[in-house]
Structures are given as C-alpha cells and as structure tokens.
TrEMBL record:
Parts forming coiled coils: none
Domain of life, source organism: Bacteria
Name this protein carries in UniProt: Protein-L-isoaspartate O-methyltransferase
Molecular functions (GO terms): protein-L-isoaspartate (D-aspartate) O-methyltransferase activity
Pfam family, any one: PCMT
Gene3D superfamilies linked to this entry: Vaccinia Virus protein VP39
Recorded GO CC terms: cytoplasm
InterPro entries attached to this UniProt entry: PCMT, SAM-dependent_MTases_sf
Family: Belongs to the methyltransferase superfamily. L-isoaspartyl/D-aspartyl protein methyltransferase family.
SUPFAM superfamilies for this protein: S-adenosyl-L-methionine-dependent methyltransferases
Organism this protein belongs to: Elstera litoralis
Amino acid sequence: MDYAAARANMIECQVRTNKVIDPDVIAAMATVPREAFVPEALRPVAYIDEDLTVAPGRFLLEPMIIARLLQSAEIKKTDRALDFATGTGYGAALLAHLAGTVTALDSRASLLDLARRALAAAPVPVNFVEAPLDGVLAQAEGLAGQSFDVVLVSGALPKVPAALLDLLAEGGRLVTILKPEVAGGGEPPMGSATLFVKRAGVAAGRVLFDSATPLLPEFAPKPQFVF
C-alpha cells in the first residue's frame, strides 16, 4: 500500500475540507505516519475517517477530529504539551511537531513501550510517564511539580477530572471530547469536542463541534441496575 499517497489524500479530503487551515497542524498531519501507530492488521485502514481502537480502551483519533482539536488549542513552539491516554503515541507524535516539549501519559507500560519505539525519531524529546489516568496526577512520578500549556486527551471523557485541570498552567488549553453520563448509565452515541482555557485559576469550556470518539474505559459510567 502507498501510505504516502494515503496520507496526502487524508490531508486533502478529511483535514482541509473540515475547516483545518493551520499550516503547522496540516504539516504535522502530513509528516507523521499514522500507520506506524496501529497494529499491523490495521495499517491498511490507518487513514480512514474513523477512530481506530489500537488496544483495548485506547484510540487513534479520527484525522479530522484530532486536527481540529489541535488547531483549536493554538499550540506554540514554546508550549509544554501533554498527551493524556497516549496509547501508541500518535497524539504525542503530532504534538512533537507543534510544541516545545511533550509528555506522553498512559497507565499501561506495554503501550508506552510501543509509543517509545514509534517516537524514537520525534523532533523534540518526549517524556513518557506511567500513571493511573484516574489518579492524583500531580503526585505521579514524572508529573510532580509540572504544569502544561496544552493538554490533548486521546479519547472521550464524561467530564474532565479536576486532577487533569490542575495540571493546566495559567492560560493553558485543554482539548477533549465530552460525553456526559446519561440516565441509566451507558455511553451516549455522540459527544462534544470542547476547548477548556484556564484564566485566573479557573478552566472554562467552550463546545467546538460534535464527535463520536469512544469513552476512555477508566472514566466510563458504571451500569445502573433498577429493581
């Protein structure tokens, strides 16, 4: 398969046609090989316009979705960036072309090993941190004392954990997909891409567009039984 041609087609048919005009985001998407971040069996479909499950509960976000999230974050070369639930590291790879420093966080050592290998040639050093996604992140080894100008969440959340918002620096931006819990439990079919900006210590959110990105299982609502 001609992956370079597939990548170029992704840019022209999925990214540019969906309100993505930031030249740095487009260049990053055109440079990073999505096929390097999926299992071999998924490589032929690495560039389709869908979220791909690369491991149980970890996702390669749909090209248009991640491109619009990154554009909305207005990332600068001086920014400190965090990819939350990095999985195999695709989000971190894109951030490495946009920000000054990058941290890739996941709870699974096996996935971080895959991400580390895939990101060996990243344009900036990537710091890999293993920690529970639903834990006290500020106390995790590798995160203690740190704050970030940009946080990308590589999966959907019912709401943004306070522990994650606490990692945002003043003026920091967090982009994610929100899928609020529905009555009776379960995952709603559609969520909202949302940008949070921290000002005067408070992070306020603004809805950007709709997205069906799956929930991260660590934050999925538990089934409710009614008798």
